[in-house]
Specification:
This protein is of the alpha/beta class. The chain has nine helices and seven strands. The chain has a domain of 155 residues: Vaccinia Virus protein VP39 (Rossmann fold, 3-Layer(aba) Sandwich).
Amino acid sequence: MDVGFIKHKGFLWGIDLSEEQAQQFNTYYNLIQQENKKYNLTRIEKEEDILDEHFFDPLKGYLKGRDMTCSELLDVGSGAGFPGIPLKIFIPELRVILVEKTRKKALFLKKVVRELGLSRVEIWHNRAEQIARSSSRETFCWVTARAVAPLPLILEIALPLLQKGGFFWSLQGPSYAESLAAAKSISSACGARLEEVVQYSLPVTLKKRVILIFKKTGESNSLYPRYKS
């Protein structure tokens, strides 16, 4: 993969990348390819698929839902860094906290941050449930999570992290309606409401994508998250 190819792919998505951003994505891709077997980062290995499904997918969502973001992002269960790292590359001024409970993946994230020269990025090797039970409870204005847990469970983990007026983005596939119905009571108990459903398709494969955006309107019930150490 080269920088020109990445910029061209971004253009197809309607995403205008600088030379530096394209180079950072290229370095990120190479790190994933080098370390994937060691860290079990992703089952997606083709360069175009990684660009589409890991790198540009969250950026497209951002372009559609940017009014419901802020200058600080907490990415729950970041894994290989999706969506937190792509969003940081695309929005350099963003402060990003990547929460990852698995030590080997947290080490990989540290390597990515170092190799890409990213500033204002922190890796918290911890469980999000513990953070939600700490002094950091209800202090974040933008929280994301992708493929971490079923929607009801991730809501009870993520929503107590949000401050009033903040937004939680849950990246979903097209079959979200049933999960959303099952999560309605948790959302209410955690002081949030569904603000918007952002829908779009990947430009090449035409796979459907959905971001459920919840807004925090009140305090979360102290019962949540139901975490036991």
